[in-house]
Amino acid sequence: MPEIKEKIRVLSVLVEDAPNTLTKVSGAIRRRGFHVRGISVGPSSQPGRFRITLQVDHGHAEADQVRKQLERLVEVVEVEDLTGDHVHSRELIVAKVAASELDALLKRGAKVLSTAADGTTVEFSGEREEVGDFVDELTRHGIVDVARSGPVVMRRTQ
Amino acid sequence: MILEALEREGVEYIFGYPGGANLPIYQHLREHPRLKHILVRHEQGAAHMADGYARACGRPGVVFATSGPGALNLVTGLCTAYMDSVPMVAITGQVNSTQVGRDAFQESDVIGATSSVTKHSYLVTSIDQLPRVIHEAFHIATTGRPGPVLVDICKDVQMAEADRVTPERLEIPGYKLNGHVDLDHARRAAKALAGAERPVILAGHGVLLSHAEPQLQELAETAAAPVGTTLLGIGAFPVKHPLSLHMTGFMGTGWCLKAVQNADVLMMVGMRVDDRVTAKLSEFAPNVKTFIHVDIDGSEMGKNVRPHIELVADAKQALAAMQPHVGALNQNRGRWLAQIDAWREEHPLRYKHSNGQLQPQDVLIDMYRRARSEAIVVADVGQNQIWAALWWNYDRPGLFINSGGAGTMGYALPAAIGAKFGRPDVPVWCVAGEGGFVMTAQELSVAVEHQLDVKVVLLNNFSLGMVRQFQDDFYGGVRSQVDLKHMPDFVKLSEAYGLPARRVERFEDIGPAFDAAERTKGPFLIDFRIDPEANVYPIVPLGKSLNEFWESPENA
Ligand SMILES: Cc1ncc(C[n+]2csc(CCOP(=O)(O)OP(=O)(O)O)c2C)c(N)n1
Question: Which residue segments constitute the domains of chain A, with CATH numbers given?
Answer without folding.
Answer: 8-81 (3.30.70.260), 87-155 (3.30.70.1150)
